[in-house]
Amino acid sequence: MTIRINDRRLWVSLVALVAVLGLVALAAGIPGLFLLLAIPVALILVFTVVGSRATIGVIPLRDCPYFVSSVRRVSGPAMLN
């Protein structure tokens, strides 16, 4: 007892189901892939910033003579000299 009318409908519905499942997997897979790629990039940036803050590049009291040759008052009470 085979039913020929329902066979075609069954195959169409199975093919449609497979197509929809493929689209759902693709729609979930592409953003998931971008998320998996963004996590290591974010970690690299975080550790780069944290690592660069561990070394002190400029100490103002020590490095001041290299950048400042003279000091002159530009506001406030009149100069006494």
Order of H and E elements: HH
Q: Quick check: average pLDDT?
A: 82
- Residue fraction in strands: under 5%
The count of helical stretches stands at 2
Class from secondary-structure proportions: mainly alpha
Overall outline? rod-shaped
Q: Which residue ranges are poorly predicted, with pLDDT under 50 across at least 5 consecutive positions? A: none
Rounded to the nearest angstrom, the distance between the terminal CA atoms is 117 Å
**What's the alpha carbon Rg, rounded to whole Å?**
35 Å
Q: How does the major sheet shape up? A: none
Structural write-up:
Helices cover 73% and strands 0% of the residues. The protein is mostly helical. It has a domain at 4-56. The radius of gyration is 35 Å and the shape is rod-shaped.
Short description:
This protein has two helices and no strands. The chain is mainly alpha-helical. The chain has a domain of 53 residues.
List keywords for this structure.
mainly alpha; 2 helices
Topology of helices and strands:
Blueprint: H1 4-54, H2 60-67
